[in-house]
Fold this sequence. Notes:
Largest sheet: 7 strands, mixed
Number of strands: 7
Number of helices: 8
Distance between the termini: 27 Å
Strand order of the largest sheet: 6-5-4-3-2-1-7
Radius of gyration: 17 Å
Helix content: 40-55%
Shape: globular
Strand content: 15-25%
Structural class: alpha/beta
Amino acid sequence: MFQTIHQLTSSPEDILMVTKDVIKEFADDGVKYLELRSTPRRENATGMTKKTYVESILEGIKQSKQENLDIDVRYLITVDRRGGPLVAKETVKLAEEFFLSTEGIVLGLDLSGDPTVGQAKDFMEPLLEAKKAGLKLALHLSEIPNQKKETQILLDLLPDRIGHGTFLNSGERGSLDLVDFVRQHRIPLVTVKESYHGGSGITLEHGL
């Protein structure tokens, strides 16, 4: 589904329109605080770069605020595991730049994407860099069974939030050790039904 959406939103103008539409929809639903989560895309035929992609989302947030919508909107820049560690490093640098220049609108970094692609250890360097820079970390982990080692590596970063975490529970072939670690460190957990908002390619996450 997201691949089709990406094909339909290929220019800065498209991203601006979608961002404003998503924000208005949530505002109309009475939501007061919203975090958008989206992956900057590589340069394409329309000339949209990763930087202009992020700028388009930020412009959508700015225009929505100017239209006096009663909603506070922030943005998590996403690292897609499928891009690999080198792309992750580029994304962290981009997130750091906007984190420093947007007065808290760019709030943090999100790690997500196909959980069968890559290994957590490959992303440690960019994730640690993001944490050092002050970016909040939202990490999708334990989305498939039998990933105790991978999950522990990510949990050791003490993320500000866990996305999904479907198989953390021992009843879902997870581990009581991991559950106890999450509880001990009071790491917030967001479930699938709470985090997904259909259709836009830009999804909601509860507050960091």
